[in-house]
Amino acid sequence: MRVLIAKDYDELSEKAFEVMKDIIRSNPYAVLGLATGTTPLGLYRHMIEDHKAHGTSYAHIRTVNLDEYQGLPKNHNQSYAYFMRENLFRHLDIETSNTYIENGTAQDEQAECARYNKLLEELPRDIQLLGLGSNGHIAFNEPRTPFGSQTHVVDLTENTIKDNARLFSDISEVPKKAFTMGIKQIMQAKQILILASGANKADAVYKTVCGKVTEEVPASVLQLHPNCILIADKEAASKL
Ligand code: F6R
């Protein structure tokens, strides 16, 4: 794993954009694995600015997202589908039909997981972007998720529900379950870019980079990926 330390969140976002830009400019047909959450927002802003200033086109780019809350329709303002549309897709020339995410309202959960597994097989990702949970989760793969897991429905931990409550008006509104891409499928991306910002991620960053590879810390599996870059700002890297 290559580790880059940025002086602050702005520099982290710039460095992340350098990595993403190389992929998009060298292959206009690239498949991008994308993430939601607070951490990638700076990177997404750079992608939008670059598209507007330099005309970098996403007309043939396809995207696959990591996860979606169970029970939220795609037009719900806390759904990850909505997040992606508002924070990235609607500002680019990407075709909506080329952006993929789990269907949070699928009635048949198993069929939805199978559909997504098939899609991931058909769309090998050139890069997978990840944020890092303060408990070491990647996507919604919480501690003790088997490294061999594929798309599945998870019960979110108290820790994750608490972390995510800041985006809802009340903690009781945070969904308790989510669809998530599995760890095996994250590892299948050709390249992985994981971002971590802020002191509350310092412990998870330390365990991801220096700890033992264990299902107790899902992100520690990334030590086994042949092409993984972790970018942390100073606060997130403070325990390294
Ligand atoms: C989001 C996701 C989550 C977040 C993680 C960090 O699609 O899969 O694993 O990346 O919870 O979230 P932030 O960036 O909000 O700290």
State the gist of this model.
With 240 residues, the protein is of the alpha/beta class. Helices cover 31% and strands 18% of the residues.
Task: Describe the protein in words.
The protein is of the alpha/beta class and 240 residues long. It has helices at residues 9-26, 41-54, 80-87, 109-122, 158-164, 183-187, 202-210, and strands at 2-6, 31-34, 62-65, 67-69, 99-100, 127-131, 152-155, 177-180, 192-196, 228-233. It has a 7-stranded parallel beta sheet, with helices on both faces. It has a 3-stranded antiparallel beta sheet with strand order 4-8-7, covered by helices on one side. Helix 2 links the parallel strand 2 (31-34) and strand 3. Helix 1 crosses helix 2. It is globular. The chain starts with a strand and ends in a 7-residue tail after the last strand. Residues 35-39, 66-67, 131-133, 137-140 line the site of fructose -6-phosphate. Fructose -6-phosphate binds at residues 35-39, 66-67, 131-133, 137-140.
